[in-house]
Amino acid sequence: MSNDAPLRVPDPAADPQPATGSPEADESFSVRAALRSPRRLRTEVLAGLVVALALIPEAIAFSIIAGVDPRIGLFAAFTMAVTIAFVGGRPAMISAATGAIALVIAPVVRDHGVDYLIATVILGGIIQVLLGVLGVAKLMRFIPRMVMVGFVNALAILIFLSQVPHLLGVTWVVYPLLAVGIAIIVLFPRLTKVVPAPLVAIVVLTLFTVLASVAVPTVGDEGELPESLPSLLLPDVPLSLETLQIIAPYALAMALVGLLESLLTAKLVDDVTDTHSNKTREAWGQGVANIVTGFFGGMGGCAMIGQTMINVKVSGARTRISTFLAGLFLLTLVVGLGDVVAVMPMAALVAVMIMVSVGTFDWHSIRPSTLRRLPKSEVAVMVATVVVTVATSNLAYGVLVGVLIAMVLFARRVAHFTSVTRLDASDADGERVYAVEGELFFASSNDLVYQFDYAGDPGRVVIDMTNAHIWDASTVATLDAITTKYQAKGKQVRIVGLNPDSAARHDRLSGNLGS
């Protein structure tokens, strides 16, 4: 199961306080309760073991995407899982090295080396802590669903493209092995889901290549695996403004992408378990986990959707015990069985990642029936997000462009809902009444000034705002301009019907915005 599987995107930003229905108030999420119950403790332990097995192939594969030794991804998976078990806001959620983070930080490794990668991870963690404390989780609600769909689809495309180099210039045996690996991943879950299908594919292909002495590229060819426990270290980079200029853009992108995936995964677990979690704590907790990971030489990461679902939905885990044990079991397996991991054929990992990309892509979003029903503006947002992300290989850029386009299209659409209706004169002396309806803000109010007959109207003009709402200073400035135009022709203007919020904004700003 992939860590980047597509999901429906409800509001990921809600950050309720612990209350009824929250993990903190539910005994089924209590570590103490699990430790007192042998049955529940067994569930947590087995869940942690299964997740650890599922983490190994993907952590190695994501390391290769990032262009680093597999041990850097494996160390990240260990430190992220263990740390988030203590500081995360969502019990039973799994965090480790991910494809999204690997894609973001890959250019740092390629252009500047591993030490700059570690510095980037640490700075990215610091940024996440700051964003978490500042309440960035609440801003996630402003990311439109079609931006998220584009984000997921672009991630799938990038993961697939990152596997192509491993299929070029290799012996022909790689291709049958790849086909067999994909077949196992697709068909094995029909027999049982107790053991992750990607792990089965890797074991089967590894046994075949070793027993048959087939010469194919292996994980060991990509770099050394860990032979000891990770240790604390400081990145060997100069503490200068130049270093900050190099790593800051990647650290910010890593922080945003990591928070995005983590908060979405937390919301998904909320829905599965029918509970609420502390999204603010999850945000800064991810930052703490990345800081710890950086100081232990890891590549950084975020929440993993696939492994979290294995833990919560398939295995039935509910506490932080399973998350902690997943990291602990992972380290035990790779350090104790490093020689076995080294002979794994790359074809097996490529098969895993191809199926990750297939499973990640939201195929429903590109069905002709779906595209016919969606407004063209929604399709444009999704396509723009995908195109920019794939073109730049930066998920953060794609999301930013998608959000900006969605905002512009939304403002344009809402602006058309505003109308000005001219009513007949109400008395013999002549009084013109204009009824304004709609939501008035910078996009909808700019043309408001052209909707009045300044020369032809009688001496008194009433602007009825009963069915309108003033949202910003641009609208107040427009109303001031309308009043000024009438006064220049010796006519009186009254604005009536303002609701309390609009009246307060108008009274505070009117006459104070300049010409």
Features:
515 residues; two-stranded antiparallel ribbon; 6 strands; elongated; STAS_dom; transmembrane helix
Account of the 3D structure:
By secondary structure, the protein is α/β, with parallel strands linked by helices. Helix content is 59%, strand content 7%. The protein has helices at residues 31-36, 38-66, 70-87, 99-112, 114-133, 145-163, 174-187, 197-211, 241-273, 279-295, 305-314, 320-336, 338-342, 346-360, 368-373, 376-392, 395-415, 442-445, 473-488, 500-509; strands spanning 95-96, 302-303, 419-422, 431-440, 460-470, 492-496. A 4-stranded mixed beta sheet has the order 3-4-5-6. A two-stranded antiparallel ribbon has the order 1-2. α18 links the parallel β4 (431-440) and β5. 48% of the residues are buried. The model is unreliable at 1-21 (pLDDT under 50).
Order of helices and strands: HHHEHHHHHHHEHHHHHHHEEHEHEH
The total strand number stands at 6
Q: Beta-strand level of the residues, as a percent range?
A: 5-15%
Shape: elongated
Oligomer: single chain
- Strand order, largest beta sheet: 3-4-5-6
Tally of alpha and pi helices: 20
Radius of gyration: 28 Å
Secondary structure: helix percent: 55-70%
Nearest-integer average pLDDT:
85
Main beta sheet: strand number and arrangement?
Answer: 4 strands, mixed
**Straight-line distance between termini:** 61 Å
Uncertain runs: 1-21
Helix/strand/pairing category: alpha/beta
